[in-house]
């Protein structure tokens, strides 16, 4: 699985992420929100092309599970051929649940109901995270467009055993196993 968050309408960043994803051999794309709009707190970056971002992602609509970010709207859904407006979603893997959310509502400070061994995957902060806290997996792939807190642009990858955050050159920034620690 390829985890992408906070694209903010920047086509070259999305293309770099998808190219790296191809090399990693993903089968599904998990989009953790903020797909097309740059938002009022972020600069408009070179390559800002929200319609083209929607077109590119639509090519993979049958492989995408997405959630809504705080910059996503019903107008964005009109361009995207995959469901984008869910506040959160769940993946069930190996009998454990992974909550997919953007992170502006549900997040490490406001967890959904989880039990030991479950996890939360979120974006919003643009800061990579991969680790266990109090028996709960916390996973944030960072942002493919605008790293924050001194972090470079990044994405997430799950190979069935490890959750990894990689910069867009493929260098590992953080990782953990799917086994509770």
UniProtKB/TrEMBL annotation:
SUPFAM superfamilies: Metallo-dependent phosphatases (SSF56300). Its EC number is 3.1.4.-. GO terms for molecular function: hydrolase activity; metal ion binding. Residues 2-155 form the Calcineurin-like phosphoesterase domain. The lineage of its organism: Bacteria, Pseudomonadati, Pseudomonadota, Gammaproteobacteria, Alteromonadales. Its cofactor is a divalent metal cation. Gene3D superfamilies: 3.60.21.10. Keywords: Metal-binding. InterPro entries: Calcineurin-like_PHP_lpxH (IPR024654), Metallo-depent_PP-like (IPR029052), Phosphodiesterase_MJ0936/Vps29 (IPR000979). NCBIfam families: PRK09453.1, yfcE. Pfam families: Metallophos_2. Belongs to the metallophosphoesterase superfamily. YfcE family. Signal peptide: none annotated. This is Phosphoesterase. It comes from the Bacteria. It is an enzyme of class 3 (hydrolase).
